[in-house]
Design goal:
single chain; 147 residues; alpha/beta; 5 strands
């Protein structure tokens, strides 16, 4: 395939992928983990940190075009910055931890509600402040971290 020199291919994002596409990615990933790691505990969770935007000084101008951390996107489908995720290794269910925007952001941008994000990503959306207590709700044997 010949590349078009007028298109910056590094900034293209996939759109229109359904939450079930990423759910299948999680299931495949967990199945591969189980086949490769003999000591993987069934009653465990995988914790992930998404990418973070870098702003220029005190304004809303990005230093560069934000692209989500690749592993995080592959397993969640989330394109926004500042999110964290928890994947339950028993059933590949997903919980997203959403940063709370400040009041200025709410004035200038549309901020999706937790319900809208839950529907958009097919996952439980939880406020980031509740993360420390929420990750222990499934009572995991181990917490695996992908940083």
């Amino acid at each position: 395939m010949k590349m078009n020199p007028n298109i910056d291919y590094s900034t293209l994002e996939f759109t229109g992928l359904t939450p079930s596409f990423f759910e299948q990615n999680r299931k495949n990933y967990i199945q591969n983990l189980k086949s490769k790691l003999s000591g993987l505990e069934e009653n465990s969770i995988l914790f992930l940190k998404g990418g973070k935007e870098i702003f220029r000084y005190d304004n809303d101008d990005d230093i560069h075009y934000f692209m989500q951390e690749s592993n995080f996107y592959y397993l969640t489908g989330v394109r926004e910055s500042g999110f964290y995720a928890m994947i339950d290794l028993r059933d590949a269910s997903l919980a997203l931890y959403v940063p709370t925007p400040d009041e200025t952001t709410k004035i200038f941008f549309h901020v999706e509600t937790l319900e809208e994000l839950s529907k958009k990503y097919g996952a439980r959306a939880v406020e980031l402040e509740k993360m420390p207590t929420h990750i222990y709700t499934p009572n995991p044997t181990k917490i695996y971290v992908l940083n």
